[in-house]
Structure formats: structure tokens, C-alpha cells
Amino acid sequence: MATEDEPDATPDAAAGSTSPTENQPDTRLSPLFEVLDELIVAAEESAASSSQSDDYLVDFDSNVLVRGIKGLKSARILIRAGQWEYSTAVARQIFELLINMEYLYSLANREAAVKRYSWFGFLQFFLSEQRRFDFMQERSPGKTPSDWENSVRSTLDAHFDEFKLAPRADGTPRWRSNWSGKTAKALAELSSDPMRAKQYDLLFSTWSEQTHATPSIFTSDLFDRYEEEVLGEAMTEVTRLLPSSFSLIGGQGRREAHTLSMVIVLFTQLWRILPNAPRPIEDEAENRLKKVKEFMARRVLHPLPIAD
């Protein structure tokens, strides 16, 4: 159920009709939306209880949790609006947040790891400011640098040595691309969850294709429109292709359900590993995951890549 400041947004509503139909996400995925709403309420209560803490580690975990909650809310808005493709960017971010926190909290010195993670965030901010100043200089050559610009450049020169790489041939600095020195794939493979690497292979790559607007983003829509041509020409060599298989190509509802389910599962796993945030009530968390699994078992042609 949407709140007053967050009205239901569906494809039909955008076209001028507000009457629900069985094809709208709110109707087809109502059990998942109910679980999602319960999860958001529970997580927000937990985050509120630990906000404004004087303990940096508690405050850090609270901010991680809040970021994840924003992801849940964003996925809810996008999928309710029928924008499955854009909700994958949210799912991808929650996945990356999870694998980074899993690695961070696997390290022997967690406090030092949190500091390094946070410090890299400051580096990213200062590098962003530097790029902005470089662009301004190109647009206005000879302009006197502001005090803030001088401060940013001197900070980058004097700090963040742990993230500096060998300079380029022209002498300009090079920086590490992430705080951990590891790719998302490597972090997934290092996870204590044996399914994390499978999730990377099965989900992360697909979500990335949507996020980066690769040609695959048009597959579903083109298949829906040109189904006869696709089946008559591109698939003439495919034997024993059942009509039920067509939904695997054009089945937006299946993808919506799968993405929404994984957002719920990944956030729950993220919440569980934050050592300095109030933990979820396990009976309630397990019940929510059970509902998600049962829904997917009834409606989707393949299982979620999660542990039983």
C-alpha cells in the first residue's frame, strides 16, 4: 500500500487510467510488495534506534542500513511503475554494498577497515571536486583559483597515499579504483556465502547490462513486438521450442518478480551482517524470506540463487 506522499505509480496510471488490472505490478506482485513494506518498516525502526550515535562504528553501520533502505524504497517505486529495467541498478547497488560489507567485516581489524572504506569515500569526493575545477579552468583559463580549490588540490597532494598508484608517464597521479583493491567478482568469490559467486554470475552481469544500456535492454520489447518474425526466422533451427519458453524472452513480469525478490533477500542478508546495528528479529526475517521463496516457487520458472 502506497503512502500519501508516495502514490501508486503504474503504467496505466501514467497513461491516465487509475483502475488496477491483473497485469499491473501491484496486482501481480502484491505478496512481494507486502513483504517489502514489512521489511522497510522493520529496518527503519532499527535504523532510528541507532541514529546519531557518538560511536563511529555504530553510526557507520546505521548509515549502511539507511542506504540499503533507500534502495528498497527505490525498487518499490520503480517496479510499481513498471520500470523493471531501472530497478536493476538498485538491485546491483545493494549487491555491491553487501559484498563490500562482507569483505570489510571479514578482516581482522574491522575498525581499520571501516576507516579505510570511509577514507576512500573522502578521496572520491575530493577527486570529483578536482575534476570540476579542471573543467572550470578549461572554460575560464587564467581564472584565479578559489581558496576551496587550493584546499582540495593540496589535500590530494598531501593525503591518501594508501590509494596512490605509480604516476602516469606525464607525471599525473593515478589512483586505485576501489577501497579494497578487489573487483566485485573477487569480493563475491571471497564471500562466506557459497551462493554469492553464483549470484554474481547469474544476476550481477544481467543487472549491469541494464545499468549500462547494452543491446540486451531492448530484447524483451523487441520480442513482444516482433514475436512472429523472431520465431519464424531467428529460431528456425531451434528444435522442440515450446510456446511456454517464449515468456523467458518477453516475460517482464517474471523479471520484475525476480528482481524484487532478490532485493528483499540481499538487503536482509546485508542487515544481518552489520555487527553494530540492531539485528533483525530472526523469526520475522525468516518468515519474510519464506514468503518470498514460496511466491517464487509458485510463479517463476526457475529458483532464486540463494541457499535453501
Structural features, described:
The protein is mainly α and 308 residues long. It folds into 2 domains: 26-106 and 192-233 and 243-299; 110-175, no CATH class. Helices cover 65% and strands 1% of the residues. It contains 14 helices and 2 strands, in the order H-H-H-H-H-H-H-E-E-H-H-H-H-H-H-H. It has helices at 11-14, 25-28, 30-50, 56-80, 84-104, 110-139, 147-158, 184-190, 196-211, 219-225, 227-234, 247-250, 252-273, 282-299, and strands spanning 164-165, 174-175. Strands 1-2 form a two-stranded antiparallel sheet. Strand 1 and strand 2 form a beta hairpin. Helix 4 (56-80) runs antiparallel to helix 13 (252-273), helix 5 crosses helix 9 (196-211) and helix 5 (84-104) runs parallel beside helix 13 (252-273). The longest helix is centred in the middle third of the chain and has 30 residues, at 110-139. It starts with 10 loop residues before the first helix and ends in a 9-residue tail after the last helix. Mean pLDDT is 82; it is low at 1-20 and 223-250.
- Unreliable residue stretches: 1-20, 223-250
Task: State the helix count.
Answer: 14
Globular, elongated, flat, extended or rod-shaped: what is the shape?
globular
**Over all CA atoms, what is the radius of gyration?**
23 Å
Assembly level? single chain
Tag the structure with descriptive keywords.
308 residues, disordered N terminus, mainly alpha, two-stranded antiparallel sheet
Could you outline the blueprint of secondary structure elements for this entry?
Layout: H1 11-14, H2 25-28, H3 30-50, H4 56-80, H5 84-104, H6 110-139, H7 147-158, E1 164-165, E2 174-175, H8 184-190, H9 196-211, H10 219-225, H11 227-234, H12 247-250, H13 252-273, H14 282-299
Antiparallel strand pairs: 1-2
